[in-house]
């Protein structure tokens, strides 16, 4: 969905069930705060908590997710064993699905047969005219092929929905994986070719050159594609075309047939996110032979379905996408994979059962009051900015005042009555769920924006900001101890949930969010001069993060991570302001030898503690708009004079930056 891409917090938690406040045992006192605050706050924990074999990284987030998993497992097992649930009820659908998921023997027996009808359809293609209807059918059921289609809010007219078409069709995580020439990237491509051949073999398909041919085909699709950094620029991707213009521009793609096959009624205009990609695709469909297109379509079906079939396929799929790409050596146990599968297929049904067990209206009230608090501090900050004109300040304050808030779970749950969960096969359920979601999306076109929808499940430990709805959303899973704990010392609540609330609010004012107005439209509200000054200020952060190296050849991408880095710095600065306002009403004392301000920063740093496998770190740096946890701490704090003051950071300390070199935005 467009609303939140790249804006997720990727949040983590402090594990703190026994003691209230910061985790003293995690601290490594041998490290000076000014040398490396991340290791000072977390060093002992990092040494004592190696990554389990079934995980690619291990940190505060995972520990809390583990606890949620136990709740979800209990729910799933109880509904799976309950044969008395009313047919079609949430319990019946979730229970039927989980029972089927646990039945590995059935998947072994079925082998690749659940995917056979789609492979037959490809085999039966007689000429190129039959390709587009088949792609349309694949898209409806979630088989990734050639390009993407979705319906979302119109970025420049946020009260209406509009169709979008976008680049797609790649098996590797990003466009740049195909063209990077360093040894590690070359090796990944070789492994990918082997993987494609291995999967084809397990399907009883393929040929000597199959893997190589697929790589070459995907490289042709990747070449005109935008990479993740370029895709952060929404303005560049907002290319409005009329229906007729589109149909004429790409005759070989035959969009007329495509739209009719996906059951989309006539519309006036749509957005072509990457015109260069569609020009190249139009060309490819003309020049590539029917046979090579069929081979690619076969791969699309195999690649989409491999994780839902027998154990040989599931294991091979895991080997490439988890072991090769993220270094994880063992699959998660079946029940944990069952939670992930249930979240993906019947997510909000499971969410209803989850909040019945875990959510209290009291936490909603408390977090809401904290949002009031952080908004008030943000207002003080905006009014006090010395670089911004009053004209722009006024607009910023209007936007801040109009943020919508959502807490816990949707007021109105998604209606799953049209989704059939049957005892046939895991893959068939996955396809029906995808088709149900697709039709739901198609139904939106022409209707008013549904502002009650959620882009995240209540059982997800995270939060997000949507620029087109101008809203911040806090699922139930984030509003529970120890992350937000009404009984804990304020320092932790302000350094953690306070920083999160500040982070999400600041997304409305990061390098991309600031391009959207209070009404959710992509339209500038800045004076030219203020915009220029803002861009100059954000450039400082880009350069700082470009200079954080994790190995000789791999450094953080300062452009890709800019929005998140702005949100981290703004969020913590605002949370600090709010904490100071709080301390004036309710003075803090020294606890465990740390002042209130020191505990605030330790609380923040401890959210981000995590051990990461080198392979996973590499993938994160190439694809994730969030900086790794370590640098979210180092990068954010090295820019904050409040931190310098709290810990007596001075020139010569590694964390120290001269005041002229610091980023200071919100
Ligand atoms: Zn974020």
Describe this structure in words.
With 666 residues, this protein is of the alpha+beta class. The protein contains 25 helices and 11 strands. The strands form 4 sheets. The protein has a 4-stranded mixed β-sheet with strand order 2-3-5-4. A 3-stranded mixed β-sheet has the order 6-8-7, covered by helices on one side. Strands 1-11 form a two-stranded antiparallel sheet. A hairpin with a 4-residue loop joins strand 7 (464-466) and strand 8 (471-475). Zinc ion is lined by residues 7-9, 503, 507, 564, 567.
What order do the helices and strands come in, and which of them pair?
Elements: H1 37-48, E1 57-59, H2 60-81, H3 90-102, H4 104-110, H5 116-123, H6 131-140, E2 147-154, E3 157-167, H7 183-202, H8 210-222, H9 234-237, E4 240-242, H10 243-249, H11 255-261, E5 269-272, H12 275-287, H13 290-305, H14 311-326, H15 334-358, H16 361-384, H17 390-401, E6 404-408, H18 426-444, E7 464-466, E8 471-475, H19 490-507, H20 528-546, E9 549-551, E10 554-555, H21 562-585, H22 596-607, E11 610-612, H23 614-623, H24 629-637, H25 641-647
Parallel strand pairs: 3-5, 6-8
Antiparallel strand pairs: 1-11, 2-3, 4-5, 7-8, 9-10
Helix pairs in contact: 1-22, 2-3, 2-15, 3-15, 5-13, 6-11, 7-8, 7-14, 8-13, 14-23, 16-17, 16-19, 16-21, 19-21, 19-22, 21-24, 22-24
Bound molecules: zinc ion.
